[in-house]
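Ticket #4471: structure export looks truncated?
Reporter: QA, pipeline team
Priority: medium

Steps to reproduce: submit the single chain below to the structure queue and open the exported record.
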Amino acid sequence: MLTIDTLRADHVGADGGPAGVTPSLDALGRAGAVFLDATAHVPLTLPSHISIFSGRYPIAHGVHDNGSVAVPESVPMLATVLHATGITPQRSSRRTSFGDRPGWRADSRCTTIDSKTADARI
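Actual output as written to the record:
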């Protein structure tokens, strides 16, 4: 799963944008699934991603802003579920909004990879 914050879909070739501008994303789109219509539960990065990775609305997981609010241990996160099945999720981020902040406890089950390594894989 790849999530990107603040990217205009009409600038990505896989979404109908100009060819050649985003060749790596276009190749990834051809090899996987592209969602042309997606709606965020909240227009903020951290609570929106916690919703994606927990399957819960912000009212249920308790993260409502990009501050350092911790996700309660009672909220199951995708990385924890995957890890329990023997899959070790990987994450890469250039932003500190995920990093090792207290709100992003899912990272405790993820292997962190360098963002340059991630770029080479895309």
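Status: closed, not a bug. The export was complete when the record was re-opened. Leaving a note from the reviewer for reference: The longest helix spans residues 45-54.
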